[in-house]
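[job 0412] stage=fold_complex status=start
inputs:
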Amino acid sequence: MPDRLTEGLIDLLRPLLAVLLGLAVGAVAIWATGHPVGEAYAALWNGAFGNRTFLGSTLARSSTIALAGLGVAVAFRAGALNLGGEGQLALGGLAAALFTIYVPLPGPLPLVAGLLAGAAGGALWALLPAWLEVRFRVQLLISSLLLNYVAVYSASYLVSVPFRDLSGGGALAQTRLIPEAARIALLPGTRMHAGILITLALSLVLWFVMMRTVTGYEWRMTGLNPDFARYGGVDRVRALVTAMLVSGAVAGLGGAIEVMAVYHRYIDGNLTRPGFAWSGLMAALLADNHPLGVLLAAFLLGVIQVGSTGMERTTQIPLEISSVVQAVIVLFVSVRIGADLLRRFRGRRAARG
Amino acid sequence: MADLFDIQLLHMTLRTVVPVLLAALGGALCERAGLFNVALEGMMLAGAFGAVVGSFFLGGAGWGVLAAIAAATAIGLILAVLSLNLRANEIVVGISLNLLVVGLTTFLMRVVLGATGTFHHPDLQGLPQWSPEWLQAVPVLGRLLSGHTPVVWAAYLAVPILTYFLFQTTIGLRLRAVGEHARAAQTLAVNPLRMQYLAVVLAGVLTGLAGAQLSLGQVRIFQENMTAGRGFIALVAVIFGRAHPTGVLLASLLFGLIDALGIRLQGVGLPSQVTGLLPFVVTLLTLVALRGRGLNRQGTA
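[job 0412] stage=fold_complex status=done
writing structure:
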């Protein structure tokens, strides 16, 4: 099947081309600040891979982006335009922090409980827009987006007033530290935390669920063609609700791991300011919602983000350049989606003629 | 409770609602031409930044307004080229553009204005506030209507003008026809692309003005991501107001009143987070009350 091979190669080449174009736009921005482009990109590379600590933060950030992205991929595959990752991730992180702090459990249980609380927090928050869509026909795209603001403001209030850590003056809006037993450790001999393993395992599980199970098939059918899915006996409401639950749970887990492995407490703004959820969305778009592709895309975005922090340290080029490069990459990839449709259309016409 | 509602609250509402109203009018035009414009937020933010840069470097708020319109229109044109000519998904492009503008304006604020987080400068000229003596002499209305920037007046004038444009002119009819049924319009020799570009450019003007009012009218600063979701509230106002300028005005006024009330309540000790989430809760509740009877948009179904 040489045709399928070429098509597959094109599918791989397009994101690569988009990345190169994104870096080219970044180069123009760097050039405009008056810095040598080569030197700046070398600093970016060094910032992402320069030593074990840098590599550790690159992988940690990629891991959280990947979880946010996997959540988006599940929802998008099922045709649910879940833009609420930011709120789901933040509330997952907050749930993990509060549960482990206020519910004392013996042995290694706090670790498990924290992860589960995070997943539950994200899932419940994702259930709300699904319910609004099913019950009140409120577009999920809009409600999930607006609910981000509700979640982020609420979380901010909760850690600013009722759950604020007042020890040491309470100058910052943050919770107390979570107990030792609930913290995710670094992998022995490395600077990367063990949460990365959860991300890797979960992407495999989600790949299996999406591509090899009935539930996954129903999600994909609902996403591709809801009328056909209904004709085939798929319960649209069930597909929507389960996809949103899984989507929110995965994003919530991302927030929980970030809290339990990196900060060891919930700090106001720390799960929203780095833009994990939006980077995750970009990763899902880059990977065309393929769970394993999301891993790769998330790693790429993690490298760009952590690398640009390093670049700012050595060259004073503002790190926001990473947001510009990422957005440009996604814009170039988005054109591909249109090209695919065009290809399908031509194929159909050829088949008919 | 009674002293919460007074002339000053209404005055504040008339003013604070303007960015949302202008952006929503732009969104309504795009909607009518068959383009779901999620990039309103980014266009408005680009406008707010352009306004500050233009006013600061060219030394006048008028230049700021022009630069704001140029910046917002530029973002709109990217949306148009990618989603109309290159057939990219308009929602994906819109979201990406919003993220692009947040990054780009923050980056440029540091490079061009040398500021992090917030830019303010004593030489930065804001929009003039218009309070002629004859207007001030009018009882009640005088207090309500004086002290507003020209952009505020433009926003409210735009409502009848756009209503007339959409429903009484040939171009307006063609624009709506394209949104209703592009093919049918085409058979009547209407070029759909041209109408959609017209809508996007007009939306650029409107969101540019919205941004200018935000950074040079309400205050005289530029702040990282200062639109803070207003573009999304505008999107809901488009749906709630069924893409009709008058409907959009009423929806915006409702959201604006809540916003102004929130600021007022903050003064009596309500936490800023509560007043911050209030407009978003109200917009969600209006969507629930509509039960999908607003615009019939491509959702998940």
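[job 0412] summary: Chain A touches chain B through 54 residues (CB under 8 Å).
[job 0412] exit 0
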